[in-house]
Structures are given as structure tokens and as C-alpha cells.
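WARN no homologs supplied; continuing
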Amino acid sequence: MNYYNVMANYNQWMNQKFYDICADITDLECKSDRGAFFKLIDGTINHILITIADNQLHRSTKWATILA
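OK structure emitted
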């Protein structure tokens, strides 16, 4: 398994852990400043969703061939 596959698997695992935690917190908690890089949990969720959408777009381009 190459480095990119290892990192993709780790990312998927951590995102799932994050989603599981988010399922148990209130909307107010999602919108509270946590002092993290994206400040709010909502900001982190937005980052994950944008990254997933960007990755889906690039799967059909040359980047998929370069990173394979």
C-alpha cells in the first residue's frame, strides 16, 4: 500500500470518528468557538465536505492517474 492510500484510509477513519461525535452534540455546540483551526465544528464539517467534493471532481482528471 502506498503513502497516498495509507493517508486516504486514515482520513476516512478519522472523518467517521468525527461524524460519530457530531451526531451526539447539539447545534449550539457545533456553532461554539472551539479554538481549533476552523474555530467551529461547523467550519470543520464544511472543510471536510469541500475536500470530498474537490476529490470527487479530480477523480475524473489527470490527478487520479498521477496519484495512483
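The mean pLDDT is 83.
OK
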